[in-house]
Amino acid sequence: QIYETADEAVKAVAREIVDLVQTKAASSEKCVLGLATGVSPIKLYQELVRMHREEGVSFRNVVTFNLDEYLPMPKESEQSYHYFMHHHLFDHIDIDPKNIHIPDGTLEGDEIDKFCRDYEKAIEAAGGIDLQILGIGRTGHIGFNEPGSFITSQTRKVFLNDLTIKDAIKDFGSRNLVPTKAITMGVGTIMQARRVILMAWGEKKAPIIKATVEGRVSDSVPATFLQMHSNVQFVIDESAASEL
Ligand code: GLP
């Protein structure tokens, strides 16, 4: 779905999320959302906050699982995805804090593997992800599943690609301050979501959107695995679509 502007696009995505949340609420069910960070979803979160404030939309029945977190990363750091999610969304809506799940960047050694296994179990116990929101990195990563990630990969510790580290310098100030590792949901975790919406804005994303939508399915561009998902939508603006 190509929109003229990102503003228009996020309105449609926010509407779909809220419809799903309210349909589930009407039958006293929880709505399980997979959430993303980065610049791309910021406007979406602003629209959800607006709908909560101005239209009284409630998120009490929502359970969230975030895709990823840098490693090492203290929760209170302004660069953490933990801070990002609270700052842009969770602090401004009525979600129950115990329904929020974000990978923990403070763990070390064997604790990490255990955490990752438990994260998968928690997603399963919640009934699986109803709707997964994604951005895309210029390496073709979804979450932090860099080139070489398998289609069956699960939540795990990963090493960041050079281009990803370069793109993160804007948030950290200098290259040596960017963490080189992360915890991310796997491609397999994402593929199990019942619906996936990937959002991308701007010309910088045009080459990777073309490779992802029109290219051969391969682990050298992990986002191409989404071509094999039965219920996926790319919601992009005209500039991100300019090479299609
Ligand atoms: C980070 C995140 C990804 C995100 C990507 C793109 O690497 N881990 O989940 O999709 O950035 O970010 P942006 O939306 O800022 O371009």
UniProtKB/TrEMBL annotation:
<feature type="domain" description="Glucosamine/galactosamine-6-phosphate isomerase">
    <location>
        <begin position="5"/>
        <end position="229"/>
    </location>
</feature>
<comment type="similarity">
    <text>Belongs to the glucosamine/galactosamine-6-phosphate isomerase family. NagB subfamily.</text>
</comment>
<comment type="function">
    <text>Catalyzes the reversible isomerization-deamination of glucosamine 6-phosphate (GlcN6P) to form fructose 6-phosphate (Fru6P) and ammonium ion.</text>
</comment>
<feature type="active site" description="Proton acceptor; for ring-opening step">
    <location>
        <position position="141"/>
    </location>
</feature>
<feature type="active site" description="For ring-opening step">
    <location>
        <position position="146"/>
    </location>
</feature>
<protein>
    <recommendedName>
        <fullName>Glucosamine-6-phosphate deaminase</fullName>
    </recommendedName>
</protein>
<feature type="active site" description="Proton acceptor; for enolization step">
    <location>
        <position position="68"/>
    </location>
</feature>
